[in-house]
Amino acid sequence: QAVTTLNNVAAPENVAAVFYTSGSTGTPKGVVMTHQGLVNYGLAAVSSLELNHTDRFLQLASSSFDVFLEEILPTWLAGGVVVLPHEPNPLTATQLHQVISQQQVTVMELTTAHWHEWVSQLVSFATNPPSSLRLVLVGGETILPEQLHHWQQFGLPLVHVYGLTETTITSTMYQLPPDSQITALGYRLPIGRPLANTFVYVLDEQLQPVPVGVPGEMYIGGVGLSRGYLHRPQLTAERFVSNPWASFSGERLYKTGDIGRYLADGNIEFWGRRDEQVKIRGFRIELAEVEAVLSQHPSVQQTVVIAREDVPGNKRLVAYLVSHPEQTPTITQLRQFLKEKLPEYMIPGAFMFLDTLPLTPNGKVDRRSLPTPQTNGELEVSFVAPRTPIEQMLADIWAEVLVQEQVGINDNFFELGGHSLLATQLISRVRNIFQVELPVRSLFEAA
Question: Residue ranges of the alpha helices (H) in 296-388?
């Protein structure tokens, strides 16, 4: 075989890879990455993470996931070593700890859910991360302030990364110094500043920049933009839009669908998905905000909040929680906690406790696999049947309005999924049947 180096015939704008991401319709979308996008990311990551030939980067992501290249390309460009674990993925927290120690891993990246699990185990066993680690990257979902506080006790730098396949892996980074003190329970860890040759605009619905501190939709531009979606010209045109501030003809922006805001120091704060903003009973609700407040409860380890419409016409918020092993809160305690911080319409109508949150193969919370809440929820009072004809009539009204199989005389209207709109329906039916006038607030006061 010839020993001469092959000529590089690839141009910067040529296709380098196609990665498929999940689509809202269930049909995967092929994202067409270019050589210039991948090279730009690799060099930017080497610079931002200060990678060198002594680094050993743990390779955890599936080869079908763009993070696979995030782990490999910068490491090779820096002359470092990519460590392949012998155990099949996903690794347990214990296996992860063992691999890091045995292979002297210096850098690794975890999805937020896996990082939460690992930190919880470190805290439970009162142990520190292996001493070889110098840097841990985390990204994909919102980091819980409590876990962030635990992490700071280890004195190890944490890099919060943000990006999308469409913008070539990672677009922004924020390194939390090990000596930072995070005390606010509602603290949001910034996603940082754009990498080299990347820019991020935060725009309103008229595609105008919003002031610093004001949330808007994030649009990303630069050499990292992919070509678009393979064989999907209409979808490409919808998501890759013309840059109104272009410095050259044909420059585009990617419409991320993510909400964020610029902070006064130039860093960007991620607020959640635009499509996670739901409207219930006329109120616009940011699901990430409800999750952020719920995660502040000292007994809540992980949580995800979604909107469900299991009964047509009755859309409600459902909170799924993983509690601390020895500190499971009651639903009443959770409701009271939220009532002190959120308006009534933002309080979930149902709560479900899970051992673990279901995850996708890429390590993100699998919202589609979350179970349907039980009809009667997790009631905290023993069922006491109606004892008189009037109590039975009232219980029947409650059951009909709340779509419950049965209602006891000690059950709480709001713990059964009631809300202000259903309260007006219930009071109206009581008025029609019993011919008595009751203010709606009487139901709230009795609860």
Answer: 331-339
